[in-house]
Amino acid sequence: MKLGLHAYSLLLAGGLRDYTPVGRGELTAEQLLEKAAQYKCTAVQLARKQLGDSDMVTLARLRGKAEELGLLLHVSTNLPESEHLVDMIHAAYNLGAPQVTVSLSHLKGTMQQRQKVLERLLAELDKAITRAKKYKIRLAFENGRHTASADLAALVQAAESEWVGVCFDMGNALTVPEEPVAAAETLAGVCFSVHLKDVQVVRSDMGATLVNCPLGDGVIDITGVLRVLKARKPELPVFLQTGAERIHVPVLDDVFLQTYPRITARALAALLRRGAMPAPDADTRFPSERHAPEKEVLKWEEDRLKRSLKQAQKLMGTESLTLAL
Description:
Strands 1-2-3-4-5-6-7-10 form an eight-stranded parallel beta barrel, surrounded by six helices. A three-stranded antiparallel beta sheet has the order 8-9-11, with no helix packed on it. 40% of the residues lie in helices and 18% in strands. The protein has 325 residues and is of the alpha/beta class. Helix 3 (82-95) runs parallel beside helix 4, helix 5 (149-159) packs parallel to helix 6 (180-187) and helix 6 packs parallel to helix 7 (222-232).
């Protein structure tokens, strides 16, 4: 397993979600590649926004920069629509990227509504799969965020293509909720890549909130997940994702429980046992949410990344990975 950097590890610096650094300006894709090389990572997963209009000049410039720095590129998108996926496959091909990672985070609604969306996606996927096969680009659908591991495994199986698989996100497993190690066991055989992250569980009256945190500060059995995946796919690329994100999981809400009927009592108890109620005077906001000075926000984000890189080195046993911190 080799360590890569996900763009969302610096999502605040990159202006990728709900924050725009005005003073220093947004971290560009080229600057992200330079940081990844500085930290001795072997690959970078770029967000769709960073590709701009995917014009040939932009893609050629990014590809040249990656080759100069010795980095492998991956690309990602949160629009699971066939025509868009075809465009992303073309962009990946021009970048020299072997994979497009597809988030299913917009897959919401009741179980029946989500199932209809998955069925429609599967029915429309033939064109994208044909293009993926032609250009030898993998399509990796991300687990969690409204999609149980068993449902995702069924989608991949139904696609009947060696070019369709899974990107296993450790934190997303808890959003359904599922045990990350158990979810990894379900998806290991069709896994193409991994999002390496840790989360803290903050209890609330309606359930819990998952808060991304530096590796080692959270509740995920990262070693257990990596052991399961490595046993089946020892060469999986692993992308560190430490972005300032939180996801509400209202598992004590009747509507949520009806929406996710696969939830077991064991999984529900396991999630709630991992968390604790915050102190009444605790400020759990990120610096960006407290409107802290930009310099403080960006330093906080990069410090989290540096801590996580050190921990990733230990967890993955990558002794040859020398981190210049």
